[in-house]
């Protein structure tokens, strides 16, 4: 605080202190000779955090000293086994998803409920080829069609599912040109 004493002496003449000039110079010199409170608080908190971090690192180093190579090797082997299991699970789920999508694609438009019919397939007997084709799918589809024919839509003359709105006969009326002709077609049946 020597700088402050020198400023007071400088602005005192004949025992009278010139407060206005002293305050101007104090405001100019204060940042050069002292740390503002906010800066001090920030630095103080930073110092505390760094000391805590240093203690944490020391504890981690002590814990690492306690782990021997054998335990570390066991941890590595455990993690490798967990990763292998996760990979196998992923591959199994991916294969199941591919089979399900292929089944749904093959029965699309042929059945009333694709999810229900897709659940009837025995996926363990299906073989997914590298080219994405599935062996055994057609045989199971035929078996399900024979045993549960009610799940399948009746085929129309062109091989597609027929309309149920006409009594399930598999043929459709020709399109009407206007509302009047549509009504006439309906009542003339």
Walk me through the structure.
By secondary structure, the protein is mainly alpha-helical. Among the domains are: 2-66, no CATH class; 91-153. Helix content is 62%, strand content 4%. It is built from seven helices and four strands, in the order αββααααββαα. The protein has helices at 2-10, 19-33, 37-66, 69-107, 114-118, 137-147, 179-187, and strands spanning 12-13, 16-17, 127-128, 134-135. Strands 1-2 form a two-stranded antiparallel ribbon. Strands 3-4 form a two-stranded antiparallel sheet. It is elongated, with a radius of gyration of 43 Å.
Order of helices and strands: HEEHHHHEEHH
Distance between the termini: 113 Å
Q: Tell me, rounded to a whole number, the average pLDDT.
A: 80
Low-confidence stretches: 161-171
Characterize the quaternary organization of these chains. Answer: single chain
Strand order across the largest sheet: 1-2
Q: Which structural class best describes the helix and strand composition? A: mainly alpha
Helix count equals: 7
Strand content: under 5%
Helical proportion? 55-70%
Shape: elongated
Total DSSP E strands: 4
Largest sheet: 2 strands, antiparallel
Rg (CA only): 43 Å
Which key features would you list for this structure?
single chain; mainly alpha; two-stranded antiparallel sheet; 7 helices; 4 strands; elongated
In short:
The protein has 189 residues and is mostly helical. It contains seven helices and four strands. The strands form two sheets. The protein has a two-stranded antiparallel sheet. The protein has a two-stranded antiparallel ribbon with strand order 3-4.
